[in-house]
Design goal:
SIR2/SIRT2 'Small Domain'; three-stranded antiparallel sheet; six-stranded parallel sheet; 2 domains; elongated; alpha/beta; binds adenosine-5-diphosphoribose; Rossmann fold; 8 helices
Length: 230
Amino acid sequence: MKRVVVLTGAGISAESGISTFRDSGGLWEQHRVEDVASIEGWQRNAGLVQEFYNQRRKAMIEARPNEGHLQLVRLEQYYDVHIITQNVDNLHERAGSKNIIHLHGELTKACSERNHNYVVDIEGWELKHGTLAPDGGRLRPFIVWFGEAVPMIEPAIDLCEQADVLIVVGTSLNVYPAAGLIHYVPPKAKCYLVDPNAVAVQRKVTIIAEKAGTGVRKVVDELIEDATKN
Ligand code: APR
């Protein structure tokens, strides 16, 4: 089976009612990144950070996967599909995708502020502030904050280097190293970009200027036709 690598961002969850970051009205218009998505912000006011992620976890639980997520599952019958997502929601999992890498962490998990390898699942929407890990560190959201290492970038690069097809969905390609993944995909690979808005992308791609729900279906239909006629 040919390998399809899908790089997703906040835009694929937009039609599920989950805010993006840089669109008008996005999360970074309502909060200062340095206050809620940085280690300095955690050290300055951990309660504020905890509440920011508790609210996002609550929205995630109330949301449902949309057609964009579901179409990627449909593709798994014809291709070896790997999702590399910048999103911290679990909508790809709840849609049924099997191979998922979360580059920026997961809302459903917490880790010790002293040891990010101590990871626990969070039941429900609230991570009660002040809960301690066995090592005495406070439990913090299992999220990669700005300035922190991206431990999953190496496996993501390995996947991209073996891709026959790349689909980029719902990301402004503003944040590295995630945005740099597109350059690891071989030049001969077929590349699509699904986004209703223009995105600056430094390689030749087929632009599908649609929302994820309709745009991903169009790409999946084309790829299934390719797979079934060959
Ligand atoms: N369907 C598809 N794309 C959409 C939709 C939609 N319905 N609505 C918006 N978009 C697009 C926007 O046009 C934009 O290009 O989704 C993209 C969202 O971009 P950002 O808000 O910058 O989100 P993202 O690219 O995922 O941000 C990357 O930045 O703040 C950090 O860690 C955070 O993982 C995040 C990273």
